[in-house]
Specification:
Distance between the termini: 30 Å
Helix content: 25-40%
CATH class of the largest domain: Alpha Beta
Number of domains: 2
CATH superfamily of the largest domain: Enolase-like C-terminal domain
CATH topology of the largest domain: TIM Barrel
Largest sheet: 9 strands, mixed
Strand content: 15-25%
Shape: globular
Radius of gyration: 20 Å
Number of helices: 12
């Protein structure tokens, strides 16, 4: 079997989340939920699907798929996942520390696992050694809201839908306090600041948030790979520190662990190198006694791949779930919350292909 074609597909889905649309880190207003899907075709008629991280990097990630990754993968055997991805990493070593080329490779790796599962007739969680389960727990990942009254209102809406764990993307003690007041003491509350503070302010803010019983404080330091400052913050606060969505490759978690920079590691399957590298990172984190909760505010095959990772991990690890209403859902019912959890696919590979009608309607370019 040989790979015959690799095609990036950008879709942009309208959404609502009950509040004004927030700004992204680039400063642009997030008017749509975007996803870079990647379709990998073979001469055996088996198609695999992946997803690459995009957002502000979309104009660079798509050419990386087309010009850097695809020419080195077409004609190769998709069954040799390790051999193919390792050879690309070596050929493109100057691009492989992290960033768009790594995002592009992540999409290819996910698609190769999808193909492998379809060939073997097994879901990815089973190929990773996981035990059968029907659901994994989920947590609501709220978009940034800002105003404490709005935070309280959206938290109440999330609780009404059945979430028992909620993550804010806020940077003020007032917003965190409003969320805790709205949810009461028994709901897990996490806060992601998206790399908001230098070390001194991070210490001040973490201590001010301690009374609100956070499960973790996520990416509090800028830049995100300032492991020395993260380790210092860990020593100054009782709140567990989480980080990892900006890890560029699995070696980064080694530096992170050596520095004592985090309690919880959050590898992103669409950034780090796909299922292969996310799974190795999960195993390494466990070997160092760190918790691991994969990063996954996605809506395509990257979201499905994360469900498989979480299912294979076992235990009570929750899957991140974007809190919004999409105009259409490319992954069907698997995006729906059921009793605070998400369905684990039982079919081969990812368990579902993206909806071609949704792609046709919302494809850009």
């Amino acid at each position: 079997m040989k790979i015959t074609k690799i095609e990036p597909i950008l879709i942009r889905l309208p959404y609502e989340h009950g509040a004004p649309k927030p700004a992204m880190g680039s400063g642009e207003i997030r008017t749509t939920m975007d996803a870079i899907l990647v379709r990998v075709e073979t001469d055996a008629g088996i198609t695999g699907w992946g997803e690459a991280f995009g957002f502000a990097t979309t104009p660079v990630t798509i050419p990386a798929i087309t010009h850097a990754i695809a020419p080195r993968a077409v004609g190769r055997d998709p069954a040799d996942i390790e051999g193919l991805t390792t050879s690309i990493k070596r050929q493109l070593q100057n691009m492989m520390h992290g960033g768009p080329a790594r995002f592009a490779l992540s999409a290819l790796d996910i698609a190769l696992w999808d193909i492998k599962g379809k060939v073997e007739g097994k879901p990815i969680w089973q190929m990773l050694g996981g035990q059968p389960r029907d659901f994994v727990p989920a947590y609501a990942s709220l978009l940034r809201l800002g105003d404490p009254d709005t935070v309280a209102r959206i938290v109440e809406a999330a609780l009404a839908r059945g979430y028992t764990r909620i993550k804010l993307h806020e940077r003020s003690v007032e917003a965190v306090a409003a969320a805790r007041a709205a949810m009461g003491p028994d709901v897990a509350l996490m806060v992601d600041t998206n790399c908001a503070w230098a070390i001194d302010q991070a210490i001040e803010m973490a201590r001010a948030m301690e009374p609100h019983d956070l499960t973790w404080l996520e990416e509090p330091i800028t830049p995100p790979d300032d492991y020395h400052s993260l380790a210092r913050l860990r020593r100054k606060t009782t709140i567990p520190i989480a980080m990892g969505e900006n890890l560029g490759n699995p070696n980064d978690v080694r530096w992170l662990a050596n520095a004592g920079a985090a309690d919880i590691v959050q590898p992103s399957v669409v950034k780090l190198g796909g299922i292969t590298d996310a799974w190795s990172t999960i195993a390494f984190a466990a070997s160092k006694g760190m918790g691991c909760v994969p990063h996954s505010p996605f809506i395509g095959p990257g979201f499905m791949a994360t469900i498989h990772l979480v299912a294979a991990m076992g235990g009570d690890v929750p899957c991140e779930h974007r809190f919004c209403e999409l105009a259409a859902n490319p992954m069907g019912a698997y995006f729906d919350l059921i009793d605070g959890g998400l369905r684990v696919p039982q079919g081969p590979g990812l368990g579902i292909d993206p909806d071609e009608e949704v792609i046709a309607r919302y494809r850009v370019g």
